[in-house]
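>> Question from a student workshop board

For tomorrow's exercise we were told to take the sequence and the ligand below, predict the bound structure, and bring the output to class. My setup keeps failing. Could a helper post the expected result so I can at least see what it should look like? The ligand is flavin-adenine dinucleotide.
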Amino acid sequence: MSISMVDLGEKLDGLLPGAVDRNVYMSKISRWRIGGPVDFLVRPQSVDELASLISLLDRSETNWIAVGHSSNLLFSDSGLRGVVVVIADNLAGFRREGDQIVVQGGHWVPSLARRLMQEGLAGAEHIVGIPGTIGGLICMNGGSMRKSIGANVVHVDCLDRHGTRIRLTQDDCQFSYRKSEIQARSLVVAEARLVFQPGDPSEIRSQMRSILRSRRLKFPLKQPNCGSVFVSDPKMYEKYGPPGAVIEKCGLKGFQIGDAQISPAHANFIVNRGNATAVDTLRLIRLIREKAMETFDCDLLCEVRYVGEDCATLPAHQVPVQLHASQDCQ
Ligand SMILES: Cc1cc2nc3c(=O)[nH]c(=O)nc-3n(C[C@H](O)[C@H](O)[C@H](O)COP(=O)(O)OP(=O)(O)OC[C@H]3O[C@@H](n4cnc5c(N)ncnc54)[C@H](O)[C@@H]3O)c2cc1C
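>> Workshop helper replied:
Here is what the output should look like for this input. Compare the format with yours to find the bug.
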């Protein structure tokens, strides 16, 4: 059964009173500050509410996507016809059980890292500067210094596309570099159990400080961006070096299309200089990939995911886009 926008709005208001916004520009929410308006943006306050919401969206055949802090997403300029389900501070529970923790999907990663340090739990210092939720991080199997959060996962309690609860063990998650089964099946992380080693809080703190210092020096943190655009998986890294170095050697550092610019500070970052659009960014991604292939025979693949009008996501390099001659050089 598909449903009219008015009926859907009424049902959402009934289910999540006070937690439904209409026509929200994703450029106001996303860390890249790019994206047109979404019909409905909702913030469920509990896992039960989340399950009922997904079940409603499934029954009414509505397009939807779960997001955390939208720090790894490029939203369509035309916006999204459907529902964005935000799982962030609204679902951020935390408890410790021995060397394990149980954390809800919306927990902010930098504060989780600080909490692990205070608790004397070591092994995930590398996540300290990553601006996202633990649900997004697990979905992306994110991390830094070529480490990934999947290594700490015991199991993940997810909701499937019908709102049914399912538990995935670490094996079920099929983690690989910046990929997971959660991403492949668009499951929603409600809660995860993670394991660490006991450690000395002051050593953990000093490691985290040094990681944060080096990130502040390397990354363009003042302009809107989404972190590394291209994946730096260990095999590619061994053969070509980091994607930023490949792009720099192509002579593209600082190059821009519209207001989307390859950061002069770090070439694997694309920054929004004010009014960048998704199309500017996709064109720049295409241009980078063509140059890297032509110069080094190197096939750069995107870590960043594009969200289309139908709320479906795919790696940004898979989005077809024209590179018009009038717009390819500035
Ligand atoms: C300055 C900067 C630095 C960054 N550095 C790093 C880094 O060092 N390492 C790294 O890995 N990433 C990095 N990123 C990218 C990003 O922060 C991570 O991928 C982060 O984990 C994404 O979390 P999020 O909550 O913002 O997810 P979103 O961007 O909102 O979503 C990303 C994906 O996860 C899915 N998702 C979100 N929440 C859930 C959930 N609860 N359940 C299931 N799926 C969900 C979304 O559908 C989407 O497919 C950086 C980004 C920025 C802006």
